Amino acid sequence: MSDYGHDLRFGAFLTPTAHDPERVVELAVLAEESGLDLVTFQDHPYQPGFLDTWTLLTWVAARTSRVEISGNVLNLPLRNPAVLARAAASLDLLSGGRAALGLGAGAFLPAIAAMGGPALTAGESVTALEEAVEIIRGVWRAGDRTPLRVRGKFHRVDGAKRGPAPAHDIPLWLGAYKPRMLRLVGAVADGWLPSLNYIDTPNLQESNAIIDQAAREAGRDPREIRRLLNILTSESLSTQEWVDRLVPLALQDGISTFLLGSDDPDAIASFGREVAPAVREAVDRERARVGTPTGLVRPAAALALRRTGIDYDAIPTSLQGRAVEPGDREYEDLRSTYIWEGRPGLILRPADEAQVTDALAFARRQDVPLAVRSGGHGLSGRATNDGGIVLDLSALDSVEVLDRERRLVRVGAGARWGDVAARLAPHGLAIGSGDYGDVGVGGLGTTAGLGLLARSYGLTIDHVKAATVVLADGRTVRADADHHPDLLWGLRGAGASLGAVTSLEIEAAEVSDVVFAVFLHDASDTAGFLQRWGELVEGSPRKLTAFLTLTRQGGALIAQTLVMWADADTDAAVTALEPFLDLAPVLSQQAQLTSYAQVMARAHNPHRGQGGGTGELRSRSALVPHLDDRTAKALAAMFDDGHTGLAQVRSMGGAVADTPADQTAFAHRDRAFALSATIRPRTGTRAAEAARAWDEVGDDAIYLSFETHDHEAVLTRAFPPATLERLRQVKRTYDPDNVFHGNFTVTPAA
């Protein structure tokens, strides 16, 4: 007798009759409307009176929005496993993570052979199924860059590319009755799916024992395997009769998913609306009485990857369903930022402010580092860690125009600026926001926000009117001119050090189309080019903002300039852009009238630590008044001496300087340019030489977003003395225990 503590689920097992194709679809929709959790369909490809099950699954997925969908079970001998894996992943992505994969070895061997399938014995069919499972799981591991090779006796792939990754961990259920198939279930499957008509209660218990033993031998917890059951009946049972029949199956035989095999709409509706709630209530009551453990069961292999210092068993219930640990399918996609590799012990993904509070309370009780992430694109590397907790705010991604007349917009901290630009474009609005659409709102919107509209409209933080922030003590507060104005001041420039910002209210700008130009120059005369470029940009109208990237390509130094003219006046734009053609030999040029949203379109690039990892790369920054002779020569020397192969210059000035220095925690309003460079290595003699060389470029002011966290004395360069002292006072009020120290550590005032 076994109760594995799984949550109870109820579904329908429908006949895909071809003579009335809409009827089976309507029954699937009815199942969803009746509260059932999943809809499954027979799969007999050799049966001419049936619809093709996979085609039906896709159609039903489009007609429903909540239920899980699966074949029950798919005939593997007539479906190529690698193609089936990609089809299942595709269906899962298109349906929002609602696909399951029920598989069978194929019981009707003559009919399979008649359709051109392999003429296998029963034993060979089991071997083929085992090989297929390995292939399917291998295709789904899209994060593994190695080619997939499975050289089985009946199924082979030799160098296949993996992917796409499904939207969630697709459960793989096997239909099985005989001992060898049952042992395969225990070794590799996520669920066992028999039909009650073919197996009686004693055999259920005996089969469970075989599955459990095989699971233990494979190093698995038997509770990892869900037990499903098809109940094919034409009987008309009362709700109580159903309770009397199903409750023992749950409590004594471990069945946690009941699939009604009926095409009667009244029976389906009653099963979802009346039977399912009554059975759940009875089972929950008995489990509470005897103390049956319930909840998520993690594989033993995943448990072995847990890190010390984190009480995984104490993760709040509100966060458990979306928490990601090492070994989880989503871990590889979430552990790193765009530039930096990370190996956190736990990634928490709250869906609302209440869950952010739960996450912070949990993180404070752990003895590990804490990182807060919005977009995870920043060069600083502070949005991940090794062995600690990452609070990922990507689910807080709403974009809402609160007041078009006042141009007031509320954006979630987890939104990406490309999505923000796209949402605001129909309203004729834009928010200055860096130069890349994949950057997250939270990081840029609380550090400064130096973008392609900066000289025209100022920094992003200059237009932040209010912020919602979860403080270290768990309070959620609104910071604006009337409520916590000191906190609002600090959030605009040092926000990551004061709390977990969940949303910002920002005054957008009226922006129609813009002129966007890209120039490619030969920058062999590096210092001279930098001086000429700086003088041209500083003398340009405010409508023009320019960003410069210098890269070593082979033996040549190439300069790419991005220029945005912040309105649709093409004549004025051409006049302002033409002087860029005289700076140095032009390798290419282009300009176009386009929308700000098009320039800022999201690229949806994977975040896999492209910079080579925290052991190799660091970024340095400087804010300088001008690109004068000394500064230009010092930056050019960084390339000549091999200290860097990539440097960038972002223009400030213009509207950036209009905001008084004491109005925000970002106080370096007198600087005309923000410089940054990537430097390798991070340690050793060469690193020390590079550090000294960079200090020759600029050593009194930095831009936090472009400064890696291993650099000493950053605070005194990021904030002038009076600003830093005021910031420490704010820190003492809102984060006296310095919970948010994973950014740059601002010590609270004594």
UniProtKB/TrEMBL annotation:
Co-factor(s): FAD
Highest taxon in the source lineage: Bacteria
Keyword Flavoprotein on entry: yes
Keyword Flavoprotein in record: yes
Keywords assigned by UniProt, alphabetized: FAD, Flavoprotein, Oxidoreductase
InterPro entries xrefs: BBE, FAD-bd_PCMH, FAD-bd_PCMH-like_sf, FAD-bd_PCMH_sub1, FAD-bd_PCMH_sub2, FAD-linked_Oxidoreductase, Luciferase-like_dom, Luciferase-like_sf
Alphabetized Pfam families for the sequence: Bac_luciferase, BBE, FAD_binding_4
Domain FAD-binding PCMH-type span(s) in chain numbering: 340-511
GO molecular function, one term: oxidoreductase activity, acting on paired donors, with incorporation or reduction of molecular oxygen
Family: Belongs to the oxygen-dependent FAD-linked oxidoreductase family.
Protein's name in the database: FAD/FMN-containing dehydrogenase
Source lineage: Bacteria, Bacillati, Actinomycetota, Actinomycetes, Streptosporangiales
